[in-house]
Each structure stands twice: as C-alpha cells, then as structure tokens.
Design goal:
alpha/beta, 537 residues, 6-stranded mixed beta sheet, globular, 8-stranded parallel beta sheet, single chain
Length: 537
C-alpha cells in the first residue's frame, strides 16, 4: 500500500525531543517519519498519497481513560436530564417521555442533579403524580443514586421496613422510604428492568464510537460499574464488534469483583490481549460520590454529622486488592473521598509490600479513579507507589459549588492536578461518561481554566491547580497510554508509533483557553485509516 503523508501542519507530536513538526508519514498503520515536509518525503520510498492540512493542527488521537461504554451508549438513547436547573422542567420532560412509552414499560434514564434545585431530594410521590402506575428508575448524574416511582419500589419489594442492603441505603424521611436509593440499594430495583438485547447494545456502541471519533478519540478504558455482570457484558460486546470488523476504538477492559475468583483461577493477568482489546485488571469501589454524600471522608461533611460511606468493607477490599495484585492483576479502584483514597493507597502499598522479592511489575499500573479530594499528606504517595491518578477534570468545574458546600476549606486538596504532577504522579484523564459528556475538550478546558464554559467562577476555582494546555492533552494521550502499559506505541507521534492522529478544528495551543470546549476533530485517523471526517453542509 502507498504511504500517507500529512503535511503543512502544525503537528504537535507530544514527543519532548521533537515537539512540533510540519509533516508526518504513515505506512502500514505506523508512523515512519516526522519532520519538515522535504525530510519526510525523502524518507518515504515508493508511492505516497498526501493530505494537505492547510494549517490545521494535528495531535495524537485521544483516549478516554474512564468511560462506561455500554452505559453511555445506551444512555444516549434514553431520557437524559443533564444540566437542567429547574425541577419543574425535569418533571415536564419525564411526563413527555413517559407519554411515548408503551403501557407498563419501565421509564429509564438519568442525569438529574438535585444540587441544581437547592439540594432537596425528589420523591416517588412526585413521579407518581406525572407517570401514574408506571415503574420509573432514573439515575442521578453520578450513577450512585437513583430516583424511583412507587411502582418501581413495589416491584423491587421495597417498603418502609426494608433493611438497607450491604454497601447501600434506602433514603427515608420520618421512617418512610421516599423513593431515593443509594449505591447497592439501586440494584434492588435495577435487577427487574428488562435488559437491552445484544443487537441493541452493539448498535448503540457503534453510534458511540462515531461520537468519540468526532472528538478525535480512538481509545477507551472501560471500567465496570456497580451492577453485577457489567464487566462480562462490556467485554462480550467489544469482542463481538471485533469479530464483525466494527471495533473502531482501542479498549482496555476491566473485570468486576464478581469475576475476580474465576480470573485468578484461570491465570488471567493484566496485559492479556493485544492493542485492540486488553485486560487492564480488577475494578472495585471503595466509596460512593460527592453529590450523593456517600464519598467517604476523614471528617464530617460541612453542616452534616456523617462521613459518607464505604461501598466495600475495608477488610474485604484489602483482601481483594492483595489477591489481585499477587495474582498479576493490577487494580483500578474508585475512590472519591479523602478517607477512601487513603484506604486504597494503604491497601495497594501493603499488597505491593507482600510481593516476593524479584517479582516483575505488572505491565499495566495500579490506579485510583477520580481522586477527587486528597489529604495533602497522601498526594506524594501516588508518585512514590507508581499509582496512576485517573481523573476527570470536568468533575472539578461541574461540582465545584457542591464541593465547596460539603467539603469547605478541605477543597484545597480537591481535584489537585498540579499538586499531583509536582509530586511525581502520572495523570490519566477521562470523562466518566455518561456521568459527564464524552467530549475530552470540556475536560481540557476545565483542567486549564478551572472554570465552566460560562467563565464561572471568576479567576478559576483554586487556580493554583491549573494545568497548561500541553499537560491537559497529555492526560488524554501519553498519560492514558501509560495507564494502559502502551507508552511504547501510543500517546505521541514518533517513528514506530501507531498512526492514531486527530486533525483538529482549531489549534488548542493558540486558542483562548476559555474556548477549548469548542474544539473538535476535522478528521480522525486510526492506524493511518481515516475513520471519521467532518462533512461540510
């Protein structure tokens, strides 16, 4: 096949030895030369095709280091209530959506955020008033709380006397269950919702891949959610797409705790697979979330008398982390609160300390997901222990008001991008879609400005934690490649690396940082193949 040359850049390689070039040559899916146009053309023997960039910027294609693929894909087709400030508007949209459904069908969706209407939890009675006897289960934006109708509660067998399940709670007021389910209590209702068919899932994922390509994204790290079987469902889906020649994202897959014993018994280790589908390790949860007030804290929430809650018992978590790491499976642990992060750091440190001398490090590093608030004394431990800080910068700007309300002055250690970098941590960035939009450019803006797209708060929230544009993009490229054990072939544009490139609609290094969220891809290349190109209407 002829070589492909992209020329008339700028091309930002993210290679510190050659950070910016004018042209790049590709053959057989890999970069073969970079530099000025003359040098690159001279390095290519035989026929070559060309793409004149006409001054458009190119960067390595992006990877989302934390996306719930099946949940996001299906969620794009259900009721979305994201970023709605008015509770009345929420109710109106629910009523309109319910009217389109067959009688008795479950109404599903989510994205609501009760902090936007003053922090009051909605109730089953309010759903009942607009949907009647229909079962409804709507996830809060973080996925760790759900709002259920009375019919859904009845189907789930939940009444005022139902005990809280392990790792979850049924919210009650004056002893009455109000229709709000936290953490594992959600499963009491969710298990009764009919599953999407395999073809519905695959079709939704294909559409989600197209969306990802429109941002310049060709890779996803796919953690399991809290629902049993989620890991197997996701892994089966991406394998089926690969069998059909339709897997157009590189997928790093994580197994859930329900698959740990089987994986260890079979000798499954981190790194199993290839550059298209690889096993990353074990995913587990230490605590809940900020907005649901279930993130586990070292001291009480501001104005409250509680510390959040662990989702996994600490002894059980320590045991799973130790067995996993000893068996060659790296861990990915969800931890939001400072207490949860400390527990996970302690558990990983202890597990690493028990490895026999001479044990070869797993090819994929251990990581903590979210790291939303850290005690200052714990920040250096990420670098010291080689633990990736897998973070979603968009959480910083979207949640800064509720973080300030619930964590107060402790927010000096919240979303501490700069502090973590300075202490030697590797940052891998993602979206946490569908909790937040899949686009990485919203997160890039958040990391660089610490402001929402409307400029709030003025000057940025704890602006000392801001990153440069290069550092933010690094989190979606080289940082994500490090988290996947793939720094030898992903995350930069250099000879021998995979030719995964994003041709952008604007140059992020020259754009006003407040406009970074407007960036998208004009063209996305996966191993030198154009998988997406913006059409001009």
């Amino acid at each position: 096949m002829p070589a492909l040359i992209l020329y008339n850049g700028p091309i930002y390689t993210l290679n510190p030895d050659q950070p910016q070039v004018q042209a790049v040559a590709i053959r057989d899916g890999r970069v073969v030369a970079v530099g000025n146009e003359g040098k690159v053309r001279a390095a290519v023997s035989g026929p070559a095709e060309g793409i004149n960039l006409r001054g458009r910027a190119v960067i390595p294609a992006l990877t989302d280091a934390h996306v719930h693929l099946v949940w996001h894909a299906l969620g794009r087709r259900s009721l979305r209530l994201d970023d709605i400030e008015s509770f009345d508007v929420i109710l109106t949209q629910i009523a309109e959506h319910a009217a389109k459904l067959p009688e008795g069908a479950w109404l599903q969706g989510g994205g609501w955020d009760h902090s936007r209407w003053g922090g009051r939890w909605p109730t089953a009675a309010e759903l009942d008033a607009i949907v009647g006897n229909r079962p409804v289960l709507l996830s809060r934006k973080d996925g760790h709380t759900a709002w259920a109708s009375s019919r859904a509660l009845a189907i789930a067998g939940i009444d005022d006397t139902t005990p809280d399940p392990a790792g979850g709670s049924i919210r009650r007021e004056k002893g009455k269950a109000i229709g709000i389910l936290h953490e594992h209590a959600i499963d009491l209702g969710r298990r009764h919702i009919p599953e999407a068919t395999e073809e519905e899932r695959l079709d939704a994922i294909r559409d989600a891949f197209i969306e990802a390509h429109s941002y310049g994204m060709v890779g996803m790290h796919v953690p399991t959610g809290m629902r049993p079987g989620d890991g197997a469902l996701s892994l089966t889906a991406v394998q089926k797409l690969r069998e059909r020649g339709q897997l157009l994202q590189r997928c790093l897959m994580y197994i859930g705790i329900d698959g740990l014993d089987a994986a260890l018994a079979m000798g499954v280790r981190s790194g199993l697979g290839d550059r298209w589908i690889r096993i990353g390790g074990l995913k587990l949860f230490a605590d809940g979330t900020l907005g649901s007030e279930t993130a586990e804290m070292l001291s009480h929430y501001e104005g409250r008398r509680h510390l959040g809650m662990p989702v996994t018992d600490v002894e059980e978590m320590n045991d799973m982390i130790e067995r996993s790491i000893a068996g060659g499976l790296s861990v990915m642990v969800h931890a939001i609160g400072d207490a949860a992060n400390r527990k996970v750091l302690n558990a990983i440190e202890a597990a690493l300390g028990r490895l026999p001398d001479g044990t070869t490090a797993a090819p994929i590093p251990n990581r903590i997901e979210h790291c939303q608030i850290l005690h200052p004394s714990d920040i250096p431990r990420f670098g010291q222990l080689g633990i990736v800080a897998s973070m979603q910068p968009i959480h910083c700007t979207q949640d800064h008001e509720v973080a300030t309300l619930l964590w107060g002055d402790r927010c000096v250690g919240a979303y501490a991008f700069r502090s973590l970098l300075q202490q030697g941590a590797v940052l891998a960035f993602g979206s946490d879609a569908p909790v937040e939009p899949l686009t990485p450019w919203l997160s890039n803006q958040a990391a660089v400005t610490r402001q929402r797209t409307n400029g709030a708060p003025a000057g940025g929230w704890y602006p000392e934690q801001r990153l440069s544009v290069a550092e933010a993009i690094h989190g979606f490229t080289a940082g994500a490649a490090h988290a996947a054990g793939a720094t030898h072939e992903q995350g930069r544009i250099a000879p021998g690396y995979l030719a995964d490139l994003a041709v952008l609609s604007a140059d992020p290094f020259k754009l006003d940082p407040s406009l970074l969220h407007t960036v998208g891809a004009e063209m996305t290349l996966l191993e030198g193949r154009v998988v997406w190109e913006r059409t001009i209407s």
